[in-house]
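Render this sequence as a predicted structure.
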Amino acid sequence: MKLTTTSTVIRNIFNIHNQLTDSETLTFTPSSLDINLVDDAHVALLTQSIPSTYFKSYQSSDHQITINIPEFLSLIPKKSTPVTITIDNSITIKTPTQTLSIGYSPPTDPPSIPTLSPSNTIPLTTSTLTTFIKKASTITDHIAITTRPDGIHLTALYDSTTVHTHIPSAELPNATIDPSICLYSTDYLSILNHIKKIHSTMTLKFSTNEPLILTSSSPFPSTFLLAPRISHDDSIISDHQSIIDSTLPSTKTTLKSYY
């Protein structure tokens, strides 16, 4: 396998992976580099299919290897520069100023991908999500995503401090909205700070008590799946709904949490 690109392209891709795990299996085919990894706690899953055309040049046969992500990234310059990566008996990374090599391991079995049928499909800009998550993470370790006839609500709370973002349904003409609510970890969603460097828009998909699915097709297919944060305290759901109802009392909707 041999590809040429820039160090920025490589770092943007693998910094995402490094948020979830230290080790991953790369699947090279003649037409793409495919990623299918799960975090160590089996809470989040990421798949990517990066076409050969995404790189300046790309040549490969069918090939799989497992790499240590932090070790690999340590050899990729932070400053944007041309880079050539060759894989044979080792991984060789060549830049205009140096040539370095590291080893790799045999491939591991990829994680299985669950079959889901989410009732909500909502296109959003990635920056909308990251801006909210950045604010929410300063006060709590989870957020609620709520869909109601009036649109989608992102809420976070701790004691009397709340963060609330509302995107009206009128601004989501291509969305499918079904009343739902679910909690998700801000720690895992912080990965979007890296994803937004590649994907400017994503489609959010979820149903009550089901994993959150974030997908994008541009510039290449990518899917991030995050298991819900299950709470057995109905008051948590009620508190999140109260934030919305106090802001938009005319749109009050009762949602079953199923917790």
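Summary. Helices lie at 7-18, 69-74, 126-136, 186-189, 192-195, 234-247. The first strand starts at residue 2 and ends at 6.
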